[in-house]
Amino acid sequence: MKNRFTLFAAAALCAGAALAGLLPGTAADARAQGQPQGPDMAEMRRGMELMQKQMAVMTPDMVERANALSPEIKKFLVGVVLKHPRQSDTLTLRQVMEEILADYHAVATALATDNGELAADAARRIANHRLPRGGLLPYLPLDKVTTQGLSVLPSMEKAVEGSAHLLAAAAEKGDMVAAAQHFGTMTSGCVACHAHFRGQPGTSARVRAR
Ligand code: HEC
Q1: Which residue from 23, 77, 111, 190 has the fewest beta carbons nearer than 10 Å?
Q2: Cβ 62 under 6 angstroms from ligand 1
Q3: Do 8 and 52 touch, CB atoms closer than 8 A?
């Protein structure tokens, strides 16, 4: 099992190195656009440790799935743990989602009542949401935990977290019209991710399907 964690670490480190070598402009571009820079090697190593902490609580079949992912998706997942320092030892993804929903309601209330400060705070809490015990992967349908199945994650992250940050900045400036538009884009991210990974919540095996 130890070897497997190391494999994940090695693959993601290689991806980091490859990207750093192949795309030297990426960090500068990100800086120019005012976005957070890609993680450097020391950061990458720290991310890997966090990733291994998640993998330590996964079942062996889950670990195997995670290790089979492409270096690009692994690197993306390492970036996710680095960007989300609030990592719970007990909460499930559903509990984290309900927390996100509470903040989502707060944003909607704030937008409707011209309260830019509350909108900005709650939107940033959404962008900086907690990670559940074991990370995101164990809570997704097993057949979606593939390089292909997870390839949609970066665009969903951009729609939800990217828009949440833009929403916060607009709300803080008092531009509630722009903030409301970002709220729409953010919502489309929730919708797309649920359509891809979740299906109808709370169905029962004892009720005939429609
Ligand atoms: C990375 C994909 C992803 C994104 C983005 C996402 N969700 Fe979820 N969400 C899920 C998954 C998967 C579940 C099912 C979790 C489970 O049941 O274990 C879920 C469940 C939920 C639930 C629990 C009840 C239910 O319907 O299953 C709520 C509430 C929720 N999400 C709200 C939101 C909101 C609000 C947003 C946008 C701000 C959002 N989610 C964005 C993947 C996502």
Answers
A1: 23
A2: no
A3: yes
Band of residue 30 on the pLDDT scale cut at 50, 70, 90: very low
Q: How far apart are CA 52 and CA 43, in angstroms?
A: 14
pLDDT tens digit sequence for 62-72: 999 999 999 99
Quickly tell me which residue has 């935990």 as its tokens. 145
Please, what is the Cα angle at 149 between 12 and 68, to 5 degrees? 40
Tokens, residue 190 = 């929730």
Neighbours of 42 (CB within 10 A): 8
Structure tokens at 105: 């309601």
| Mean local confidence (pLDDT), 2-8 | 52
Tokens at 113, concatenated:
């009542």
Tokens for 208? 């005939």
Instruction: Residue 79: name the closest of 176, 146, 153 by CA.
Output: 153
**Residue of 80, 167, 182, 190 to test ligand 1 pocket, by largest number of atoms within 8 Å of CB:** 190
Question: How many angstroms separate the CA atoms of 179 and 141, rounded?
Answer: 33
Per-residue pLDDT tens digits for 169-200 = 999 999 999 999 999 999 999 999 999 999 88
Tokens representing 140 are 């997704």
| Dihedral sign, Cα of residue 171, residue 173, residue 174, residue 180 | negative
Beta carbons within 8 Å of 90's beta carbon, 6+ residues apart: 133
